[in-house]
Structure formats: structure tokens, C-alpha cells
Amino acid sequence: MHLLEIENLVVEFETAAGPFRAVDGVSLHVDEGEVLAIVGESGSGKSVSMLAVMGLLPWTAKVTADTMRFAGRDLLSLSAGQRRKIIGKDIAMIFQEPVASLNPCFTVGFQIEEVLRVHMGLDGKARRARAIELLNDVGIPDPEQRLGAFPHQMSGGQCQRVMIAIAIACNPKLLIADEPTTALDVTIQKQILDLLMNLQAETGMGMIMITHNMGVVAETADRVVVQYKGRKMEEADVLSLFEAPRHNYTKALLAALPDRATGDRLPTISSIFNEDIDGGAPA
């Protein structure tokens, strides 16, 4: 049994021009202890797919799927209250913009402890001790002092570490990392990726890494799902994807990488990819 299994996920939004299908029939799965990368350019439906799993899309979004199961439970049949017991505890997500995701009106300590209060039922002393432990685990110096800091008093890298601390607070079975290194400098990117992979290895949790960075995919993933315009183009283990991509869009993505490009200018995806997304090998 897969930890997370999705079949034929469709997400539509109502617009002034009519329904817009942001995710169109995506199927994927991830197992315990496995890292699945979802890769594709901006607007390919990567984040929307996972927000649908989390139940965090606006009420105007229409979400359907043949299957959406987590640890054997049908997520689509759960009530809002039942899903809230899972989300944040068994399934956690690191969002793209840590500064925007943290509440500026509350200290980072309060925001970490709130997760522990809601999902773990810990008392005040136990929550504080666990919050200090978590900040220490994610590499925040002087964690006891930093509990009282507000998000604006911390750097982008530190806020990202706080987001990771919140996400792993309840030892989730599945961690979804949505562009976890966006807007961070290269040194901090490396530190964050190393931190995530060490946590994943230590806990054995499943992980979904959403990214457009093929270098991150090569370093972290066991398997890869490639998305374009809301549809899955290809799925393969990471070595096969880089050595023998089957779909034209995957080939275009890889050809646009600086270390694979030839000549003085990088090719654009549009110049080397036939946008008939049914072209190339099947997903």
C-alpha cells in the first residue's frame, strides 16, 4: 500500500472566461521513506496538486479524483474536521514563501507551540521544551532566545528553518516541500536541502519535493514526476530520467540546463519543445 496515492486528480477554478483546469488528470504515488520530486516550470500545476491534497484550495476550486488516499484513508470522503486532524500532523507542508507564511503578529515560538497544542495536546512547559528542541534541530542558534522573536526579526533562511520546524513538529509521515529553497542564496539553499534530507533519512518519512530546479531533483529524489500545463508528462526513477528521458518536454527541460546546453546562448524550452503535449513518449 502506498503512503499517498492519487489517480486522475482534476482541479478547476471558475474565471470570468469560464472554468480553468489547473490540474488535468494527474496520477502519482509516494511510499514511506521515498522522495518524490514533482518538477515543471511555473504554472504547471505542481503546487495546486499538493494544495488539493492538503485541502487548502479556496472553496471556489472544484477538486475531483478517482483516488486520493493517504495511509489507506480516502481523503475525499473525510469531513473537514477529520481532515484537520491529519493535516499538520500526519501530512505537513513547507510553503514557498516562509516570511509570508508565518504570521507577523505572533512570535515564532507561539507559532511552533500552536501546532503542538492542537495536534499533540502538550501542556505549556512541554510545548516550550519541544519548540526549543525543534529550533535546535533545524539549526537556529540560541533557540531559547529566538522563541520570542517575530518573523521580521529573522532572515529569510531562518524563517525557512522555522517553517521546517513547524512542519516536522508532530513527526509527520509525509512532508511536502514546495520550492523550499526559493529566494535563498546558494549557501543557504545547500544548508536547507541538507537539513531536509537528513531529517527524511532519520525519520523515514515520505517526502514530496516540488521544484523547477533539476539540480535539486538530481540531489534529492528517488523518483520524478514531470508536469506541464496541469498534466503529467513523464514519471521515472531519477537516474532514468536524466540518462534517457522519454517525453519531448522532459528532453526540453534537460536541454535548457546550462551544463547540457551547447553554444553561447541557452536554448528556451519553447524553441525545442513541440507544445503538442500528447507528443513524445506516454507518461
From TrEMBL:
Residues 4-254 form the ABC transporter domain. InterPro entries: AAA+_ATPase (IPR003593), ABC_Ni/Peptide_Import (IPR050388), ABC_transporter-like_ATP-bd (IPR003439), ABC_transporter-like_CS (IPR017871), P-loop_NTPase (IPR027417). It is found in: Cell inner membrane. It comes from the Bacteria. GO terms for biological process: transmembrane transport. It is a peripheral membrane protein. Gene3D superfamilies: P-loop containing nucleotide triphosphate hydrolases. GO terms for cellular component: plasma membrane. GO terms for molecular function: ATP binding; ATP hydrolysis activity. Its main location: membrane. Keywords: ATP-binding, Cell membrane, Membrane, Nucleotide-binding, Transport. PANTHER family: DIPEPTIDE TRANSPORT ATP-BINDING PROTEIN DPPD, OLIGOPEPTIDE TRANSPORT ATP-BINDING PROTEIN APPD. Belongs to the ABC transporter superfamily. This is ATP-binding cassette domain-containing protein. The lineage of its organism: Bacteria, Pseudomonadati, Pseudomonadota, Alphaproteobacteria, Hyphomicrobiales.
